[in-house]
Amino acid sequence: MADNTITVVGNLTRDPELRFTQTGRARAVLGVAVNRRWMNRQTNDWEEQVSFFNVVCWAELAENVSESLAKGNRVVVTGRLEQRSWETPDGDQRSVVEIVADEIAPSLRWATAEITRIPRGPAGDGGGSRERRSGGTWESGDSAPQQSPEEEPF
Asked: Whose CA is closest to 102, among 141, 59, 69, 135?
């Protein structure tokens, strides 16, 4: 089986944008800029290259990211690459490769963070049927990431 795992460390290029699907499932989109800097041995000058990635996260992760992070924050993102294609109203084909995040955390290399635990639901699924902060409820068909009841989240 092929492994499609990616980890990037970079700065948010914009505030996370939180939206909800028609079924009430949270989805956040954010941009991450990854800078690579090196010394050019021939010119003795520093050179830099920047790569930009779109990141998508779902469910409680999306809500937590939108409440906790802002433009400029340095983050660590782990997830998988996923390609999405669509057709524009003009009939043109478009596609994009995004990172679908499993985990997003603030980088502590040059900053500190304060952790606030969110109580878990009775099923040990990170919230289960609890009410969302936005007033909706989780639907039983939502495929939020599952966590074993014995597994500590930190």
From this structure: 59
Side chain identity, residue 61: L
CATH code of the domain in which 21 resides: 2.40.50.140
In a domain, 62, yes or no: yes
Mind listing the pLDDT tens digit of every residue in the chain (154 residues)?
568 899 999 999 999 999 999 999 999 999 999 999 999 999 999 999 999 999 999 999 999 999 999 999 999 999 999 999 999 999 999 999 999 999 999 999 999 988 888 887 665 555 443 334 343 333 334 444 444 444 444 3
Q: Which residues contact 125 (CB under 8 A, 6 or more apart)?
A: 144, 146, 147
